[in-house]
Amino acid sequence: xxxxxxxxxxxxxxxxxxxxxxxxxxxxxxxxxxxxxxxxxxxxxxxxxxxxxxxxxxxxxxxxxxxxxxxxxxxxxxxxxxxxxxxxxxxxxxxxxxxxxxxxxxxxxxxxxxxxxxxxxxxxxxxxxxxxxxxxxxxxxxxxxxxxxxxxxxxxxxxxxxxxxxxxxxxxxxxxxxxxxxxxxxxxxxxxxxxxxxxxxxxxxxxxxxxxxxxxxxxxxxxxxxxxxxxxxxxxxxxxxxxxxxxxxxxxxxxxxxxxxxxxxxxxxxxxxxxxxxxxxxxxxxxxxxxxxx
Length: 294
Prior knowledge:
The chain is built from nine helices and nine strands. It has about 290 residues and is an alpha/beta fold. The protein has two domains: about 150 residues, 3-Layer(aba) Sandwich (Rossmann fold); about 120 residues, no CATH class. Strands 2-3-1-4-5 form a five-stranded parallel sheet. Strands 7-8-6-9 form a four-stranded parallel sheet, with helices on one face. Helix 1 packs across helix 6 and helix 4 packs across helix 5.
């Protein structure tokens, strides 16, 4: 591998005990926008790094390397890690996944997967691998013990440490709908706009929709509007923080009223404008809005 500075491309090497969650970590990183490569033969690592400058895409890399990778050797891994760390000037990180022996034993037993060190009994293979790979923990930028972590909790920890600037960007879809025609199946959160007075019963508004300014003025004069609208903003604001940490890339908010023409349309439009001003990516659809003929 060349000793010159080849790029500032970010690389995360994922290693650790077999069964500790390497595949899961790589999937989470891939969802965050990393190019994920699993079981890369150790001998190919320097060649891969040398090729990075010529790539058209500049996504960061997440590379899984452990004892099941072809040609794995602790001393060689150590040497290569030192070389690429010096070459990339701080752009390479090592994530080490740890797990208790009894948990690993249970995981391999439940999945009936063969341990990569197959010439021993399962407890012996786990002990042998730990002895072989444990020294890499001293190199790790982050060690995660997955022994007592649920899948969502594990994924959340990975996202918190390795999320890219753009990876936390949700695409929010807002849908207005009529309860008469049923809730949108894709809705993640549903807001009921029927707390507002119904413009349908005001003759001048009957043929209009929630997109018309006069209908909006009528609805904002409702004594309940401002307090409920501000409460919805707070609910959505805090909910978005949680949804981002779960790794969601899209979220559907649905606003409903009786006919899907006035109140739900108005609420969806207002939330869309507010979210847009908050810097969110927003799409809006009025599912049951009647098509105007004039």
